[in-house]
Amino acid sequence: MQRVLVVGTSGCGKTTVAEEIARHFRLPHIELDELFWKPGWGRSTDDEFCAKLERATAGDRWVVDGNYFYKLGGELWRRADTVVWLDLPLPKILWRAAKRTVTQALTRKRLWSGNRERLSHLWRRGFIMRWAMQSHPENRVRYEKAINDPRNTHITFVRLRSSQEVRDWLAGVTATSREAS
Question: Which domains does the chain have, with CATH numbers?
Answer without folding.
Answer: 3-164 (3.40.50.300)
